[in-house]
Amino acid sequence: MALPGVVCAGTQAYEPLSASVRAALYRSISDEATPFLAFNTEAEARLWLAEMSKRLASRIADRLRREEFLVSVHYEAKRAGLDPQLVLGVIQVESNFRKYAISRAGAMGFMQVMPFWIQLIGRNDDNLFHLRTNLRFGCVILRHYLNQENGDLYRALGRYNGSLGRSGYPNLVVRAWQRDWHYTAHTTVSAPAGPRS
Predict the structure, then answer these.
(1) SS3 content of the chain, % helix, strand, coil (to 5)
(2) Alpha-carbon distance 152 to 144, whole Å?
(3) Is the pLDDT of residue 8 over 80?
(4) Which of residues 166 and 105 earns the better pLDDT score?
(5) In degrees rounded to 5, what are phi and psi of residue 27?
C-alpha cells in the first residue's frame, strides 16, 4: 500500500523505436497550443476544476499554481486520449506532486520521465522540470505504452514505471485514481473495477 508522501517512481526502459513511431511521438510532443479545459460547457469545466482543486489543496497550497497545474494536466491528458484523473493517479504515485522529484534511476518531474526520451522524441532544449513539458512527455509516453499493449492499462502502467511483471505499481496507480481522483460528473474513461490480485 502506498503511504502518503512515499513515491514509487520507477524507470521507463529504453526500447528502440521505429522511425515512424519516433516521428509520430515527436509530432505529439511538438504542439505548443495554450492549455484549456475541454468540457462541453463552462459550468462543467468550473465544477471539475473546483472539485480537483479542493482535492489537491493539501499538496499544492497556492490556488493559482494549483489551478494552472490542473488545467495543464487536463489538457495534456485529453490531448493524449487519457483520463485526466488517471494522470493525476500516475503523478500521485510517481512523484507525489513534487515538481522537482528525481528518482534513483534519474526519472524527473511530476510524471517521472526518463531523460533519454528527450533524445528519442524531443528537442535538446526540452526541460523535464517544466510543467507542460513534463506532462506532455508523460502523457504521450503513457499513450504510446497503451497503444503498444493494445489498451491493457495494467501492462501499459507496468511499462511506464519500468516494472512490467515485477511489482504492484499498476494497482497503486489504479487505487489512487479510484480513491483520490475519480470524478463522476464528467469522466472520459471509466475506472477499472478494481486492482488485480
Answers:
(1) 50, 0, 45
(2) 12
(3) no
(4) 105
(5) -60, -40
Q: How far is CA 111 from CA 50, 103, 180, in A?
A: 23, 11, 17
60 neighbors 140 (Cβ within 8 angstroms): no
Q: How confident is residue 17, by pLDDT bands cut at 50, 70 and 90?
A: low
> In 3-state terms, what secondary structure has residue 166?
coil
CA distance 54 to 119: 37
Q: Name the CATH architecture for the domain at 19-181.
A: Orthogonal Bundle (1.10)
* Residue 79: C-alpha distances to residues 31, 35, 63, 139, 162 (Å): 10, 10, 24, 8, 23
Whole-number Å distance between alpha carbons of 63 and 71: 12
Enter the C-alpha cell of residue 142: 503513457
Q: Over the stretch 49-107, which tens digit does the pLDDT of each residue have?
A: 999 999 999 999 999 999 999 999 999 999 999 999 999 999 999 999 999 999 999 99
Average per-residue pLDDT for the chain: 85
Could you say which DSSP state residue 178 is in? I
Using CA atoms, how far residue 164 sits from 70, 79, 173, in Å, is 28, 25, 14
Which grid coordinates are listed for 183? 470524478
Cell numbers placing 159: 511499462
> DSSP letter at 80?
T
pLDDT of residue 189: 47
